[in-house]
């Protein structure tokens, strides 16, 4: 018996292939190509990320990910969420951010009611998330423990109605709290700090 996995982006094509294969006595259909895909690669190249996501992958991680990150990514993709390696997320958001924030003038952005729900510290945390900082980087820069940062991040996500950090970054851009140039400056500052 030959086992076949059907993968195609058109439902009618999948159905046609399935009917053909199931009518043949020496073939069986192992699956209909509706699997969620998490790409795992050593190549940190934007064009690979874009191609994988365009092809329907639900996530893209690098092989240097920690085991717990890989397992969390698999679980996230299994329930329908999307996952992208943090370094890649930053670059994708920087590219996407060029199109964000242009729709509203600065004054209107500042009037967003989501900002009114945040404490001053939570606003600092949202700005830090917007810069793409990890919990460890936020803790170091704001002189907080990582567990405190994690608590603040959870509260910020809940208050602004963001499902995850990616949505929080988009919100920070949308509210005018950060911009692509600020992120480039932050990366430059980090490299300078590391040299000293």
UniProtKB/TrEMBL annotation:
CDD domains: LuxR_C_like (cd06170), REC_NarL-like (cd17535). The keyword Phosphoprotein applies. The keyword Disulfide bond does not apply. PANTHER family: TRANSCRIPTIONAL REGULATORY PROTEIN NARL-RELATED, TWO-COMPONENT RESPONSE REGULATOR. GO terms for molecular function: DNA binding. Residues 111-176 form the HTH luxR-type domain. Residues 1-78 form the Response regulatory domain. Transmembrane segments: none annotated. PROSITE patterns: HTH_LUXR_1, HTH_LUXR_2, RESPONSE_REGULATORY. SMART domains: HTH_LUXR (SM00421). Keywords: DNA-binding, Phosphoprotein, Transcription, Transcription regulation. This is DNA-binding response regulator. GO terms for biological process: phosphorelay signal transduction system; regulation of DNA-templated transcription. Pfam families: GerE. InterPro entries: CheY-like_superfamily, NreC/VraR/RcsB-like_REC, Sig_transdc_resp-reg_C-effctor, Sig_transdc_resp-reg_receiver, Tscrpt_reg_LuxR_C, WalR-like.
